[in-house]
Write a structure and sequence with these properties.
two-stranded antiparallel ribbon, 5-stranded mixed β-sheet, mainly alpha, 7 strands, Cytochrome B6, Cytochrome Bc1 Complex, Chain D, domain 2, metal ion binding, single chain, 13 helices
């Protein structure tokens, strides 16, 4: 069955399932302080379907300052790994907009607390993560069925920031505490334990799950603090007081928005007519399957049968109908501070921002440039390649067709993306790279 027909059929099944099992009209909070969303159905194991997009500008973040300070202390504590020596900041470097600083020998992701053990994905920046809503489904007027949005990690497996911390703390390839009980033993051997007990009660020193909840609450407070959402980029100056962009940056913005050229804004949403920068987070919090090339340097990929299937693993756990329709889908990241990153895409396959932009432009018209050994979409199992987005410009072009963007256009988009760098991180940007 052709891609478009298969996607419509699968989504129609999802819609029918949601209608068949409607939720009583209710409201739920998808983002702290934001207006509650009206829930009209539940999909799978309780994932809400809502009637309107989440308005992040309505979110109000007022974390307890004492809890923020505790969360900051936890974030930088290098004794929370096994063996000790790795903190949250080891993979989310505050000098690089809370993304990864990687050694020259990196395979494209960060090494965990044990030598030779590497994360399966390229760590994202944690700036502006407070705006990511909880998991939900929403259906645009022109969509055949509802689509998933929100959730933390690229596969949406955590619903809140407090839940997310379990991942790196317990992952054997990251901080390697193994189990909540192992984490509790580790923390009880530090002076952090009595501080957490003073904040959350003495039970946290005996109950592993209580300790995890305490760490989650503290780190969530820090992630929700204004420190983690600075809005100090040149683009923010442009939004607030129309500080001019250069001619090249202005061209890049126009190309970024143009649905027949870059078409970047279709997923990386912005509102350059609003003076409120939180309307321009450069993500719609949705998911897409773009099939970036396989990063053959990743240790996990030495196994030819290993694939990162993304959202479908979460869909199975949450009992969404037809979960395999989401295999290959990953959440659209925000692009703020993207120019200070050293590696790009979820698997760290690209070493330059320019390559990441160029990939979208010529993925389907010149696949040999991107995919090794002529194996198109080589990081998605063959059974799921019908899920890959081949309909959205510029990825809808066929071999032999002209590219949507010229080389100069790509340079212009990259120049614009550099304006999204917050003031503190401008020195971390590499020199502007021209065409090759």
């Amino acid at each position: 069955m052709p891609y478009a027909c298969r996607r419509i059929a699968a989504r129609a099944t999802l819609l029918a399932w949601a209608v068949a099992f409607p939720a009583l009209a209710a409201e739920t909070m998808l983002l702290p302080g934001a207006p509650p969303a009206t829930v009209v159905a539940t999909i799978g194991n309780g994932t809400p379907k809502v009637t309107a997009k989440v308005d992040v500008t309505g979110a109000v973040f007022r974390p307890d300052p004492a809890l923020v300070a505790l969360g900051r202390r936890v974030f930088f504590d290098a004794r929370l790994s096994m063996p000790r020596g790795q903190s949250c900041a080891s993979c989310h470097d505050p000098a690089r907009a809370f993304a990864a600083t990687l050694p020259a020998s990196t395979p494209g992701v960060t090494q965990g607390s044990r030598p030779g053990h590497f994360s399966l994905r390229n760590p994202p920046s944690l700036l502006y993560v407070r705006y990511v809503p909880r998991r939900h489904f929403y259906q645009d007027d022109d969509a055949p069925a509802a689509s998933p949005f929100g959730g933390l990690f690229a596969d949406g497996r955590a619903d809140t920031l407090a839940e997310q911390v379990r991942g790196p703390l317990l992952d054997p390839n990251e901080m390697n505490n193994g189990t909540p009980a192992g984490l509790l033993r580790n923390i009880n051997g530090t002076d952090l334990a009595p501080v957490l007990a003073a904040q959350f009660g003495p039970g946290v020193r005996k109950d592993p799950e209580a300790m995890l909840r305490a760490l989650g609450a503290a780190l969530q407070a820090y992630m929700q603090s204004d420190e983690m959402a600075p809005f100090t980029s040149r683009f923010d100056d442009y939004l607030r007081r129309r500080a001019p962009l250069t001619p090249q940056e202005t061209r890049g913005l126009a190309l970024f928005k143009n649905p027949d050229k870059g078409n970047c804004m279709s997923c990386h949403t912005l509102s350059d007519t609003s003076s409120r920068p939180e309307r321009s987070l450069f993500t719609d919090f949705g998911y897409d399957a773009i099939a970036v090339p396989r990063n053959r340097a990743l240790p996990a990929n030495r196994d030819a049968k290993h694939f990162d299937n993304g959202l479908c693993d979460t869909a199975r756990r949450l009992r969404w109908p037809e979960p395999t329709q989401w295999c290959g889908y990953l959440r659209t990241p925000g692009l703020r501070n993207v120019a200070v990153r050293q590696r790009f895409m979820h698997n760290g396959v690209f070493t330059s921002l320019r390559d990441a932009v160029a990939f979208y432009n010529t993925r389907t018209i010149d696949p040999g440039k991107w995919y090794a050994d002529g194996k198109v979409f080589d990081d998605v199992p063959a059974a799921y390649r019908d899920n890959i987005n081949v309909n959205s410009p510029p990825m809808n072009r066929k071999p032999g067709m002209p590219a949507a963007l010229t080389e100069a256009d790509i340079d212009d988009i990259v120049a614009f993306l550099r304006t999204l760098t917050d003031a503190a991180y401008v020195p971390a940007m590499p020199p502007l790279q021209g065409r090759r």
